[in-house]
UniProtKB/TrEMBL annotation:
The lineage of its organism: Archaea, Methanobacteriati, Methanobacteriota, Stenosarchaea group, Halobacteria. GO terms for biological process: small molecule metabolic process. This is Zinc-binding dehydrogenase. Coiled coil: none annotated. One of its GO terms (molecular function) is adenyl nucleotide binding. Residues 13-22 have a biased composition (Acidic residues). InterPro entries: ADH-like_C (IPR013149), ADH-like_N (IPR013154), ER (IPR020843), GroES-like_sf (IPR011032), NAD(P)-bd_dom_sf (IPR036291), Quin_OxRdtase/zeta-crystal_CS (IPR002364), Zinc-ADH_QOR/CCCR (IPR051603). The keyword Cytoplasm applies. It is found in: Cytoplasm. Homotetramer.
Length: 346
């Protein structure tokens, strides 16, 4: 088969699309003929190399894909050839203390398809049946292949971790990104008043289209000041931050008394200064969040499949142009998800 792969970490020039041995599904795995896949910022981190993760080379990146089941392992009951499926990339061990307690995202052995083990940016992928969700036939491949990771992440951040309530105010940073644009839609769906930041007027227009009540260009304006103006000095109930060092101080400054900031990422760096006085005096909650449980994945993807929310597609590229796809994320180009499709499917 043809697969995106790299044999060493580095810039986009380490990426290749070429021959790779066909995957052979294990007893608990399903062979998927990939129709569409999508990038996440994680693919950039994985390509560059993450501390403590030693990959078997060549590595196939990619955590999001959807396609048709072509073969199932002997133990697999839930799927059969012809089924449409999407990948949900979080893998848990099932037997550690945290898995037994019912939250597999806290698993001590938690890992992610495409990050720690080979992923799905390829013509075919052998995926554990537990990491597949059924996709109704009417759902477009681009939607099916680009929703899972960012919608589950944003859903858990807002609904489970921040316990968002209707009528609350939410500030979503980097609303043009995958997680950001999912969080914006989820917050609106949950009945919140939503403010969004992005780095260009064009991106702010998209954010408005997705329902943002107020938008702030955080390249040109101090967003904490803007939030203060919009809310009459009160601040917002919840901030969704995945940008990290560049926004952290202002994220805390944007919160109302008793507010919650929920973070899932640190694209601009993981070690910002923190004003601890602000945290205790304003009695803020700092919440971390990663991926989603199978139940959370089912809940949010059902809403996507039913059309209540949807991934915006920045661009669709053949997998042979994977270097360009990575560049789009690194250069902050566009709004929503970058989809890649096996060249043979175009
Ligand atoms: N813990 C988890 O489970 C989890 C899950 C998903 C993602 N994440 C993390 O969350 C972050 C966002 O992921 P994503 O897939 O949504 O990424 P993405 O699609 O590339 O979006 C990132 C957004 O961040 C904004 N940004 C601000 N400064 C940036 C910079 N220096 N470089 C690039 N973008 C910048 C950009 O929006 P503007 O141009 O509008 O500023 C961009 O659209 C990543 O760090 C990722 O690793 C974590
Ligand atoms: Zn576990």
């Amino acid at each position: 088969m043809q697969a995106v792969q790299f044999s060493e970490h580095g810039d986009t020039d380490v990426l290749e699309y070429g021959e790779f041995p066909d995957p052979d599904p294990a007893e608990d795995e399903v062979l998927v003929d990939v129709k569409a896949a999508a990038l996440n910022h994680l693919d950039v981190w994985t390509r560059r190399g993450l501390p403590g993760i030693n990959l078997e080379m060549p590595h196939i990146p990619g955590s999001d894909a959807a396609g048709v089941v072509t073969e199932v392992g002997d133990e697999v009951q839930r799927f059969e050839p012809g089924d449409h499926v999407a990948v949900s990339a979080g893998v848990s061990c099932g037997h550690c203390e945290f898995c037994r307690d019912g939250d597999p995202t806290l698993c001590v052995n938690y890992h992610i398809l495409g990050e720690h083990v080979r992923g799905v940016h390829a013509e075919q992928a052998a995926v554990p049946a537990d990491n597949l969700v059924p996709v109704p036939d009417h759902v477009d491949w681009q939607v099916a292949g680009s929703s899972s990771l960012v919608f589950q992440t944003a859903w858990r951040m807002l609904m489970t971790r921040a316990e968002l309530q209707p009528g609350e105010t939410v500030l979503v940073l980097g609303a043009s990104g995958g997680v950001g644009h999912a969080a914006l839609q989820i917050a609106k769906y949950a009945g919140a008043e939503v403010y969004a930041t992005a780095s260009s007027e064009e991106k702010l227009d998209y954010a408005r289209e997705l329902g943002a009540d107020e938008v702030i260009n955080y390249e040109t304006d101090d967003f904490a000041d803007e939030v203060s103006d919009i809310t009459g000095k009160r601040g917002v109930d919840v901030v969704v931050d995945h940008v990290g060092a560049a926004t952290w101080q202002q994220s805390l400054a944007s919160l109302a008394k008793g507010g919650r900031v929920v973070t899932c990422g640190a694209t601009t760096g993981p070690n910002p200064e923190t004003d601890i006085n602000r945290i205790f005096w304003n009695q803020l909650d700092v919440l971390g969040s990663t991926m989603g449980t199978p139940g959370e994945v089912d809940d949010v993807l059902e809403l996507v499949w039913e059309g209540h929310m949807e991934p915006r597609v920045r661009d669709v590229l053949p997998m042979s142009e994977i270097d360009r796809a990575h560049e789009m994320l690194e250069n902050r180009e566009g709004f929503g998800k970058v989809v890649v499709v096996p060249d043979s499917e175009l």
